[in-house]
Design a protein that fits this description.
The strands form two sheets. Strands 2-1-8-7-6-5 form a six-stranded antiparallel beta sheet, sandwiched between helices. Strands 3-4 form a two-stranded antiparallel sheet. The chain has a single domain, classed as DD-peptidase/beta-lactamase superfamily (Beta-lactamase, 3-Layer(aba) Sandwich), CATH 3.40.710.10. By secondary structure, it is of the alpha+beta class. The chain has eight helices and eight strands. Helix 3 (about 70-80) crosses helix 5 (about 115-140) and helix 3 packs antiparallel against helix 7. The N and C termini lie far apart (about 50 Å).
Amino acid sequence: MYNEHMKKILFLFCIIFSISSFLNAQEIDKSYFKSYNTALVIYNRSSDTVTNINPERSAKRLSPCSTFKIYNTLIGLKLGLINGADDPWYKWDGIHRDIDGWNKDLTLREAFRVSAVPAYQILARQIGAERMNKYIEQINYGSKDISAGIDIFWLPESGSTSIMISANEQVALLNKLLDGKLPFSEKHVAILRDIMRTTETEKGVLYGKTGSAMSSDGKRCLGWFVGFLEHDRTTYVFACNVTGGEEPSGKVARAIIENVFKSQGLL
């Protein structure tokens, strides 16, 4: 009898959850998505409600691209390989790369802002496969597969991405981070929050990290923006990825998130 009763409760919960998600999704102006195939998940930490505009896409695992820098940063901080946000960190090797912001010495804040791949590849090599595996397992990050190589497993441009994660998993993981349920200190999470801060208005503060992937023909083929928004006393955790359309990128995903939150008076 008890099991049957619990099954009924869970069934009703699923129905209520699905209706809530559907109604919230209906409030979002789909014109923000343009021609992009969009996964968008927003979790309200105060009301414990979820908006999921495309559950099938939100459950699909994709390369994290540069959104993995969130956890690469935390692991580096925990191991003492990085210090403060504005301390000297990355020493430029003198090799000129296509992105100008990578062609100089960088602090952590600067490297995170310009998404400096060379800096984070060095950090990943310093962490090493054994320790990286340990933390990937502890935080339960997506597919947990770094077999492609310690300094390329999150990079789809290399054609050898191995680790994959869904929008649902991105939100769940960030929610655990904000709950203090991941193996990182409050000090290190505070540093991360500081460098993730992207936009501040009188209505709210947006924190996030973009990520983009290139196809073999040199065009953008995937974009991410993940993070959280603080509005009054409520925090919204989100993940958005885009594919298809005209050169999907992290910039596109970020614009979608910002438009959605602005339209709801939260940013």
